[in-house]
Amino acid sequence: MALHRRRYHYYNHLRSLLPLISAVSGVLLILFGLLSILAPSPTVSDSFRHPRRDYSSNVGADVAIGEPVFRVPSTGGRLGHDVWTSRNSKFYYGCSNASKNFANAGTITQRDRYLLIATSGGLNQQRTGITDAVVAARILNATLVVPKLDQKSFWKDASNFADIFDVDWFTKSLSNDVKIIKNLPRRRGKTWTPHNMRVPRKCSERCYQNRVLPVLLRRHAIQLTKFDYRLANKLDTQLQKLRCRVNYHALKFTNPILKMGKTLVHRMRMKSKHFIALHLRYEPDMLAFSGCYYGGGDREREELGAIRKRWKTLHIRNPDKERRHGKCPLTPKEVGLMLRALGYGSDVHIYVASGEVYKGEESLAPLKALFPNFYTKETIAKKEELEPFSSFSSRMAALDFIVCDESDVFVTNNNGNMARILAGRRKYFGHKPTIRPNAKKLYRLFLNEGNITWDVFVSKVRSYQRGFMGEPKEVRPGRGEFHENPHTCICEDSEAKAKKDSGPRKYGKGYNVTGEDSTNDDLNVDDEPELSEPDNDGDQEGTLEDDPLNGTGLDYEGFNSEEPELEEIVSD
Questions:
Q1: Among 51, 63, 121, 439, which is 20 to 30 Å from 181 by CA?
Q2: Could you tell me where the Acidic residues compositional bias lies (predicted)?
Q3: Helix 454-464 and helix 439-447, axial crossing angle in degrees, nearest 10
Q4: pLDDT, tens digit (0-9, with 9 covering 90-100), for 191-244
């Protein structure tokens, strides 16, 4: 009986505690819920929780505009396609063989006609000059002397042609197209000094025949100076194919450069099956020339303004206008956000081709937070391995060129010479993905970064980047530079494509459900990121000759495309 009373008392006491236990449990659940909401997601980088910068040119310092409302995930999200390949690329291939009607060089080359050229700019700008020089020699039925590289201005690189390119391969592989010799022959036992002259930019086939050929017939040996972009974009089909044979087959790097470049590629492949190569173009000189403003206040204006003074003929620009028009490189953070929105997660390995980045680690920190697997040639190669190349900007640029060319995805941060050359090359060799930021539209999106959700941001980035991803037929034939869009040298496997089109179709997001190839003219013409670049002719005070930029791989093309119709520099 006593035991029964004790049990009854125990149960009554327990029932009286139940409301208290329930209340405490409820409070704990509420607190836990609040903590879950307020605590940062483990997939968000701390680098993106600070207020973003205002890019307005009339603001004197960084301005906070509020905490971002979107959180950046560590994964790339779901996509309807493989981010490492281009759609329909298997239906297109490079084709540059000469037709049967293209006469052999031995039958058309005239005696006592020698063409020399002096290239201008960095490695890739000089590459365009070399390519066009071969075609110019063909137009003039002249013997080409191996081109001289620019050793005086800006880059201060003493390399000659044979230090960068395999000269024997160059002359042999083009022997059916143009006769090429290494040196101008002596004349009557004496050194022959060629007559110097300059042709206008974008000089057509008729231009060479009417303006250059008469001088060549009188002088017999002429040297075309500052030879970059001195040949028309539109030429006869067979001459365009010759351009491709030169650029994609005859210009082969020397064995030491090739060996080191392949070593860098191999080391990237050992780290990951796929990798992105990024041409960052965020060097102080690049930013100074662009005339853009990135929110760094008076310090940024003073630093970049001092660099801009090196170009005496550089126009004063409106920073807001330049950025609105897509003429400013994206910041490293913006490049990282774009790539994440396009589907590349934090596990992706990135090789960065760049010189000294403006503000160094401060600028790179957000990009590295998004993509921790971050490499450069200096981090994957020993100092002694790079020593034979490190004193020569063109050879260092060649190493970056090889890695960018071999990468699964190439990302260019604005439309310079290296970007154009590689974009065309990657089209020719299988349409490997080449991402160019649609900077004009992305600029407006980044301005609203703190006011939209991540999902909205992703949707808009993917929409804006259609036509800027290196897909086949993104650009209508004839648009842009031929070196960037070598449409004449891209052939379609019509039979294979017809089989594909006739089969059952599965459409993913972003496909053209009509089954037709579309050319995004509106995107590629209106939104094309065009970056004007300095005039390094070297004829005026304050040219780039004294600029310290060395080893960056940057290329600047002429700032002023309007030049005298024909200028004879030196008379005999």
A1: 121
A2: 518-548, 560-572
A3: 170
A4: 889 999 999 999 999 999 999 999 999 999 999 999 999 999 999 999 999 999
